[in-house]
Write a structure and sequence with these properties.
3-stranded antiparallel sheet; alpha+beta
């Protein structure tokens, strides 16, 4: 039973980011929240020209 629990835990942790973002790979966020997402291992794709938003993608 313990082996099954460990396997399920791995499967769910691998898919957690996908679930939290409704299956989307990219997200636009306010520039002020960028550091928070980067600390959670999201990747910066680009900063918007206006300077007030950024596009990030799920950690791979």
């Amino acid at each position: 039973m313990n082996h099954l629990q460990e396997r399920l835990k791995k499967i769910f942790s691998d898919k957690k980011a996908d679930i939290l973002n409704n299956g989307n790979k990219h997200k636009t966020i306010p520039e002020g929240k960028l550091e928070t997402y980067l600390n959670k291992r999201w990747k910066l794709v680009q900063r918007c020209p206006s300077g007030d938003e950024a596009v990030i993608k799920l950690p791979s």
